[in-house]
Design a protein that fits this description.
Elements lengths: L7 H11 L1 H4 L5 H5 L7 H26 L11 H8 L6 H34 L13 H17 L6 H26 L11 H10 L1 H6 L1 H4 L6 H6 L1 H4 L1 H28 L6 H9 L4 H32 L8 E3 L8 E3 H18 L2 H7 L2 H21 L2 H21 L7 H28 L3 E2 H14 L3 E8 L5 E2 L2 H8 L4 E11 L6 E3 L3 E4 L2 E8 L7 H7 L6 E10 L3 H12 L3 H4 L7 E9 L1
Parallel strand pairs: 4-6, 4-10, 6-9, 10-11
Antiparallel strand pairs: 1-2, 3-5, 7-9, 8-9
Helix pairs in contact: 1-8, 1-14, 4-9, 4-14, 4-20, 5-6, 5-19, 6-7, 6-16, 6-17, 6-18, 6-19, 6-21, 7-17, 8-14, 8-16, 19-20, 21-25
Length: 604
């Protein structure tokens, strides 16, 4: 048992579930940097120092120290930061600003998530070129192998990863031990590289190389990719196992990067530093290492996919994304989810990216822009949270880190014409969907003006006493029982459908991430009752089970649907989103034989 009651198995499990992305950066990060600048002793020492301090500032300080200690119950991600910050804000403009930041952050994270599997898988597969007899393997063949691996990876998502996840931890633990071992072995050939631990080398490099030194940060950021996924996936295991595991991962990565730096000093003509370093050290172990690297990149891709599922899940529960069908793939772990539509859209995007960029070297030109943008947004939200909480020391610390974030962002902007625009285009798709959905919902709500409860009750009492009622209980869904959706009076007063017992179900999201509470039905007038269910903003529950536990035996369930008629291009997209989304009752998997949708035609 380790300090803080974190067990070794928990640490090993976190290595497999959340550290895949950042753990496979050594495959391509340093190679990408030294394709741009020569590996002279001065450059190597400066880059090594930049890498070590980038991991220290952005991952250790920003994420494991600041961000991970903000969550209320061990959850993480941009939406969690937004939901933590919103109750602290006082003006509508501040709320709008923070909400927009969160939407941009989510979109950039998804853009990053498309490139991660592509660059990770391709960079590992390209190690095949060092195997004797396979040097002439065409890039097309490597792309096909990468595409097949991606298709297989996304095809198993619906089965859930719980059955194979037990192997992820040991594989990644072995991977990190191997990285550290090969790195340490290479350091013996140029031990002076250890001095790069000092930040003086990083500062001198930036000051002495002007614009070139500044722009190289756009490639240095590659060593920190996966930080946001690491944070978004925090709810899978909790904070402490991830923080403890990061200390071990940090040591392993530092040793490997220093080893690669030493190898670059002694082999300045190397084109693929990690694989050539391993090949030159122990040729007999090269193929097993290559196989392990491919396995590690698959696990890295899995971590990013899980992170995107988590972010989309949070977006759905906080009503900034449309409802999508969510399947829980594990009876024990609610964090193990599968979102069918997102899965296949991601696969399609990954295959397109592989075809466009063709190799990992080209992909490094596109990679990093979305990552650095996402980090800036995380930094802004963290700084605002500490500032509004009055935590002065942490606020000042967060501001310093935010300045570093902006440096990396400005440096990566020059990647836009060289491929960075692809990640922005990918990110624009979810951004546009979210914005259209949010404003479409607002416009729809304004057109379907609800009936105030005070106006509804007199008419209800009149109809209830005069109509021949249907025996049994009818359920009606409304976000707020004080404002009755139009479909309810339409059923009761226009269509003259009235049951002996009528219960309005109101699902209310709380400011806490988790927790499910409900009260007994309370009758507000004869024949009409209210049943409120309070859910944490990250909860998705079985509403049918709650109704059974509350001893509500419904005969019929009514819900409202909108048939949107429009000739406006934007609202056509909104109408398509609504058609593709499951209804509220379908989303919560209520019994289909009792459901009746009431359609209201709306012209937008």
């Amino acid at each position: 048992m380790l300090k803080g009651s974190v067990t070794v198995p928990e640490i090993v499990k976190s290595l497999g579930l959340v550290f895949g992305d950042i753990g496979t950066s050594p495959i391509y990060a340093l190679t990408a940097i030294f394709l741009l600048i020569p590996p002279t002793p001065e450059n190597v020492m400066g880059i090594m120092s930049l890498i070590i301090w980038t991991m220290t500032i952005l991952v250790t300080f920003e994420y494991t120290y600041l961000a991970m200690h903000i969550g209320k119950k061990g959850e993480g991600g941009t939406i969690v930061l937004k939901e933590t910050l919103l109750p602290l804000l006082k003006s509508g403009n501040q709320v709008a600003f923070v909400s927009l930041l969160a939407i941009v952050g989510i979109s950039l994270f998804i853009g990053d998530g498309v490139i991660t599997p592509a660059i990770s898988i391709l960079s590992a597969i390209e190690g095949i070129l060092l195997i004797p007899g396979f040097e002439a393997t065409s890039q097309t063949t490597l792309m096909i192998i990468g595409g097949i691996i991606a298709i297989c990876l996304f095809s198993i998502q619906s089965k859930g990863t719980e059955r194979v996840a037990f192997a992820f931890g040991p594989i990644m633990a072995t991977w990190f031990i191997t990285l550290a071992g090969f790195g340490a072995l290479a350091i013996f050939n140029a031990p002076s590289v250890i001095l790069a631990i000092s930040p003086v080398y990083a500062i001198n490099y930036l000051l002495g190389h002007g614009l070139e030194g500044f722009l190289i940060l756009s490639s240095v950021i590659l060593v920190a990719t996966g930080s946001e996924a690491l944070y978004a996936d925090m709810g899978h295991l909790g904070r402490e196992p991830i923080i403890k595991a990061w200390y071990l991962v940090f040591i392993a990565l530092t040793l490997n990067y220093l080893g690669q730096g030493a190898f670059a000093l002694t082999h300045p003509d190397a084109n693929n530093i990690l694989f050539e370093m391993v090949f030159s050290q122990v040729q007999i172990l090269y193929i097993p290492f290559l196989i392990m690297s491919i396995a590690a990149t698959v696990i890295a891709s899995q971590a990013m996919i899980s992170g995107i599922f988590s972010i989309v899940y949070q977006g759905i529960t906080t009503r900034i994304l449309p409802l999508l069908r969510i399947e829980f793939t594990s009876p024990q772990l609610r964090s193990q989810i599968y979102i069918d539509m997102m899965n296949w859209l991601l696969l399609f995007a990954v295959l397109i990216v592989i075809m466009i960029f063709q190799n990992s070297k080209n992909l490094t030109l596109a990679y990093g822009l979305a990552v650095s943008g996402d980090m800036v947004i995380t930094g802004i939200l963290i700084t605002m949270i500490f500032a509004y909480r009055g935590q002065i020391v942490k606020t000042l610390f967060a501001i310093c880190i935010l300045c570093v974030n902006f440096m990396f962002l400005f440096a990566t902007l020059h990647k836009i014409p060289y491929g960075g625009y692809i990640s922005l285009l990918i990110a624009f798709i979810p951004f546009a969907i979210i914005i259209i959905f949010i404003y479409g919902q607002r416009k729809l709500a304004s057109m379907l003006s609800p009936v105030p409860l005070d106006n509804f009750l007199p008419e209800f009492n009149k109809v209830y006493t005069t109509l021949n009622r249907i025996s049994g209980t009818a359920l009606f869904f409304a976000r707020d029982f004080r404002n009755i959706p139009q479909y309810i009076p339409r059923i009761m007063f226009t269509n003259n459908i009235m049951y002996d017992d009528n219960i309005i179900i109101s699902i209310i999201r709380t400011e806490q991430p988790f927790g499910v509470t409900w009260g007994f039905t309370r009758e507000i007038t004869k024949g009409l009752s209210i049943f409120e269910i309070y859910l944490g903003y990250m909860e998705i529950v079985d509403i049918g089970k709650i109704l059974r536990e509350a001893e509500i035996e419904e005969k019929t369930i009514f819900y409202g649907m909108e048939d949107i008629i429009t000739t406006h291009g934007i609202w056509r997209i909104f109408a398509a989103i609504k058609r593709l989304s499951p209804s509220l009752v379908q989303f919560y998997k209520l019994p289909s034989d009792k459901i009746h949708g009431v359609v209201t035609r709306v012209e937008m």
